[in-house]
Every structure is written in C-alpha cells, then in structure tokens.
Write a structure and sequence with these properties.
Cytochrome Bc1 Complex, Chain D, domain 2, disordered N terminus
Length: 286
C-alpha cells in the first residue's frame, strides 16, 4: 500500500496546541430523520470491533437549518444531481448503442440496495470496486464508452442517482468476499496513520475529537453513508474521494490519487464503520 508522506515539526506542535485551546464540546442532537416518508436510521449499534458503542450519522451533528434541508427533498439541492443522474441512466452512449437502462431497466428496482453494499470485491481486477468504478467498468465493457474522469459532473450525478435508490437501506458490506478483509486491514491502518505537517490521522478528528467544535465546524464520526453529499461551503456535490483528498490536503500531506489502492482501502474501512446507518444520499452538510 502506498504511504502518505509524513511531515512533522515545530509548526505541527503549534497548530495542535492551538487546536486543543480552540475546541469546545457539543453533543449530537437527539432528533429523528425521515425523508420522503422513509425513516432514516441515524443511530445504530456498532459492529463488533468498532471503537464506538454506537454509530451516528453526520446529520445529527449539523445545525438545525442544514438538517431541515436534508429532511425536505424539495429543498435539498442535491436532488438536482439525482435528476441529472436519471437523465444519464436512460442516455445511450458508446459504440454498443446502450444506456444503463438497456441492461438494468428501472433503477428503482434494479439498483435498490446497491448503494448500501458497495464497495464490493471484483475478481477480475482483484480489488474492491466502489460505485464509481463499477460505473466505469460497465461503461467500458458493456457500453463501449469512455470511463469518466474523476469527479466529472456526470460521474457524480450518476453515482448520486444510483445510491439514492437505496435511500433508507442500512449500510452493510461483505468482508468475506475475495480479499476484502485484507483491504479492510489496510484501510484501518490508513485511518489511524498520522500524516502531513499537522500530524493528523482520520481518527484525530472523527474519533479522538468527535463531538467537539473546531473553529465553526462540529466534528462528527465521519460517516460516509450520505455520499455524494451536497455541501453548503462549496455550493455543490462532493464525492467521497474528493472529501478524502480534501481532508488529506488539509493536513498538508501529499494527496493520493482518487481511487488509488490506499483510498479504496480507506473507503472499505470507513464504510464498515457506518454499518447499520441508512443510506442518506444525497445528504446535506455544511
């Protein structure tokens, strides 16, 4: 597994000292979420071996206005991505004259549950695939179309549309497939490895400082059950690997490529950490 460049020094100590002073405790809200009449599981018993006793959706850590925006689909800006994804689903592309619908018909039926079970093991490539990579595989092998470039607007929209078909379905990935457990192990190592000039790991914020405020942001458990997510601070949809890379950038470390082995392993592990939470795609975050 490729390693992130570790940069440490006096600057990191200064920042960490300032962080300790600037943080304040705050609890996640005690609230329930329902979207389009579908109850969302925002609290679930943690799977065996998890550092927490209970896993919590990031929705519980957001401000009231943000929570209300996700709860009302008509107000959720992420639904524009779902609508665009529906258009792409029925659009013929590539040399084989096919669309996604040509093979999978009605996504509401064929894609139900898909977003809750990925990443999955792919024997041909001998690695786990997430929804984005599975889309690319289908485009190349079954449609004769080009794979999407990372974070292409249509890639994000189609991923959002597919995952939205699993709205409310509890997240559960199968670690018994192929070599998934080894990738889980690699992802766990990456999650706890401190990197960059700030010497942070994923766990530094989402485990050690979970529930605290850092500047104006309330730190959640870092669950991924709502990705792609609409973020107010960027006024647009954000994919999971975009968020991974953004966090790594913020530690002032060298960023891995999207869908690299390191980030795919991290996706496997972090997805497992949210076992039992409902798929909320497209969630809304600050």
């Amino acid at each position: 597994m490729e390693r992130l460049k570790l940069l440490t020094g006096t600057a990191a100590c200064v920042v960490l000292t300032g962080l300790a002073i600037a943080t304040a405790m705050a609890d996640p809200v005690d609230d329930t979420l329902e979207i389009d009449g579908v109850p969302m599981i925002t609290k679930a018993p943690a799977p065996e071996g998890h550092p927490f006793e209970e896993v919590l959706s990031g929705w519980l850590f957001r401000e009231a206005e943000t929570r209300a925006t996700e709860a009302e689909s008509f107000a959720n800006p992420g639904m524009f991505a779902v609508e665009r994804g529906a258009e792409i689903w029925g659009t013929v592309e590539g040399t084989m004259g096919k669309s996604c619908a040509s093979c999978h018909n009605d996504a509401a039926e064929s894609m139900k549950g898909v977003g809750a079970s990925y990443p999955k093991w792919d024997a041909k490539s001998n690695k786990p695939l997430n929804v984005e990579l599975q889309i690319d595989k289908c485009r190349v092998e079954n449609m004769g179309a080009e794979p999407y470039k990372f974070d292409d607007a249509d890639q994000v929209a189609l991923t959002t549309y597919i995952k939205h078909q699993s709205l409310g379905t509890p997240v559960k990935i199968d670690l018994s497939q192929g070599d998934m457990q080894t990738w889980w192990d690699k992802g766990k190592e990456a999650y706890y490895t401190r990197t960059g000039q700030l010497n942070f790991a994923c766990a530094s914020c989402h485990e050690g400082a979970m529930g605290k405020y850092i500047r104006a942001d309330h730190l959640s458990q870092g669950q991924v059950n709502g990705f792609p997510t609409y973020r107010f601070n960027t006024a647009g949809m954000v994919s999971l690997h975009n968020r991974f890379r953004g966090c790594i950038r913020d530690t002032r470390a060298e960023m891995p490529k999207a869908f690299s082995d390191e980030l795919m392993a991290l996706e496997v592990y972090v997805t497992w950490r949210g076992t039992g939470l409902s798929v909320e795609t497209p969630s809304v975050r600050q």
